[in-house]
Amino acid sequence: MRLQVDEQADALYFHLGDSPVVHSVEAAPDVVLDFNEADEVVGIEMLRLSARSCGVDLSAVHFEKQ
Asked: 17-55 pLDDT, tens per residue?
């Protein structure tokens, strides 16, 4: 799994796998799910990230594992 922040595009992308994306669906406003050939979610994109993050410094993303 990889997390990518694109400050210019104001977007956050979760790479959940390495399969090629064959189609995408807007699951909610500014949230796009990417699917592979087996119809599995392989990516999640959140657009307009600055409007969602309430001024959080995105260069200091913290990962937690339970």
From this structure: 899 999 999 999 999 999 999 999 999 999 998 887 666
Q: State how far the Cα of 29 lies from the Cα of 18, in Å rounded to an integer.
A: 25
pLDDT digits (tens, 9 = 90+) for 55-65: 666 666 666 66
Write down the pTM of the prediction.
0.80
In a domain, 8, yes or no: yes
Total domains in the chain come to 1
Residue 65 to residues 6, 8, 17, 21, 62, Cα–Cα distance (Å): 23, 28, 18, 26, 10
State which residues form the domain around 33. 2-53
